Amino acid sequence: MLFTWKSKSILLQLLLFDATVTQSLSFKPTKPEFVILPTLREQAVIQDSWTEQRKANIPNILNEYGVDTWLMTQREYAEDTVFWSLKSAKQFSARRRTLQLFLASPKPGTPYSYSWIDNTPTVYTELLAILTTQNPSTIALNISPDISFSSGLHVGELTSLSTHLGPQWASKFVSVPMIAVEFVASKVPGQLEWYRKLQSTAWAMIEEAFSEKVITPGVTTTDDVEWHLRSKLLALNYTTWFHPDVTILTSLSPTPSTPNPHPQKPSPHPRKTIQHHDLLHVDFGVSALGLNTDTQHLAYVLPPSSPSTPSPSIPTSLKKGLQTTNRLQDIVRSNMLPGLSGNTILSNSLTQMHAEGINGKIYCHPIGDWGHSAGTLIGMTNLQEGVPVLGDLELLGEGYYSVELYAESWVEEVGEVVNFYLEEDVYYDAETGTWEWVWGRQEEFWVIRSVGEEGWQEEL
Asked: Signal sequence: where (predicted)?
């Protein structure tokens, strides 16, 4: 069965610029709130609108890379990675044999896009007819050996294509990895508004999880907090792309504990039951509307009031650690210039980081359609000298990125260096030429107080 789309009807959607995008240029985060998602039916309309707008831009991407056609084929439960960015909201998998063909410059009066769902040889007959009419000189396939988003064509489908199309067309197969990368990374007007709502919800969930509503020192474990977050996601009809991770980074308790035998090699605290004076860390993401977020925040468990400390507060050494990590975030964002490779951005950021006397690691990644999405990588935890292949890609001036990193800081109360981990998502603002926070960034610790004590946050 063959389906086609006329480009004119889809391109008209590109003119419907959501007013909220203009408002986003001056966006200032307020108190995070839980955002109730629309009905599934309403979500499908929103997602399909985004998908059609992104598809309408495929000819531009093909022309950018000098390719005439882009062809994908897959079987049920053996989908090309790009399929998940092309499908409608009502599709849960490919069916039978699903083919998708996109043309950079179709002949007058013909569509730029074709799709088949078929399990008979007819699909190849119809594909051959279109290729003969359009006569492309290149046919891009997702067969890159190095980039996952550009390597989704299964070997069996490649063999079947080559056999049924014959050597005349098989000789025109090419691998142009950036086509898939740029398509998966693309975003459209109106999407940012909803991405912000997802971020607000993620922050609100973290705020609740890191509060006395959930944590009772001496009783609650880090596992309890993780499962609270999972349950909250389910209750609000969100999901996630990874299990939440809550850890105790260190404890500033005056009670002696087992010292870290390697103070220059910080490691999470082995204890799981949360106590007063603990420094907590969470790695958490929400998923909805085909989008994913990634956030890492810090919290501190204040001790109860006592005659000697009637108003307990966050130790200055912790505040300094958070401020240092905020500075490292600024360094990385200022070096994220479109057109530079991820490895160049990493090198420039590390050079500036060390020049300012900061020690730490940088490991930023694209996000959006996937938690770890398509695009260049700016470091990895084990690859601070550069990332082979993926780090050599140029940073695109679109899409979303997770600024993920940590800075080391001396914590006098425990007599050791502690890693202060943070992660926030950013988007590229074409008008200012900068990467801006989608929601904001953590500049104050979340505070867990003893039951009965007043107040919610400790100002820096």
From this structure: 1-26
